[in-house]
Amino acid sequence: MADKKRVLIVDDDGNLCQQLGKIIEFFGYQAVLAGSNAEARQQIRSATPDLVIADLHLPDGTGLDLLHELHAADPHLPVIILTGYPTQETIRRTMLDGGYTYLAKPVALDQLRQILEHALAPRD
């Protein structure tokens, strides 16, 4: 049996982070949680994730900062930016900076499942 795909969730709202983690695991993936960019970097050093979901606003930077760092090492790593305050500018910036997609809170579970399945599907 193949190992579960690893999804790193980065959000400073601990309750939301844990809820998303439980949902991700219910969908059949391994969830790894971090509350800041620094914690995310520590998790990444332990094991590279297959996908990252990062809140736009974090205590030590932004999800876009993390996106830039991750894409410098692996431009094909899917990074989803998540926020409760979506604006056209941040959506545009996410896509121009190579984000996989942009999700507004609260996240629709069907939409999240579809995005995860597509982003983590085997590539030819």
Explain what the structure shows.
- This protein is α/β, with parallel strands linked by helices.
- The chain has one domain (about 5-120): Response regulator (Rossmann fold), CATH 3.40.50.
- It has five helices and seven strands.
- It has helices spanning about 15-25, 35-45, 65-75, 90-95, 110-120, and strands spanning about 5-10, 30-35, 50-55, 55-60, 60, 80-85, 100-105.
- A five-stranded parallel β-sheet has the order 2-1-3-6-7, sandwiched between helices.
- It is globular and about 35 Å long.
- It starts with 5 loop residues before the first strand and ends in a 5-residue tail after the last helix.
- The mean pLDDT is about 95.
List its traits.
124 residues, Rossmann fold, five-stranded parallel sheet, alpha/beta
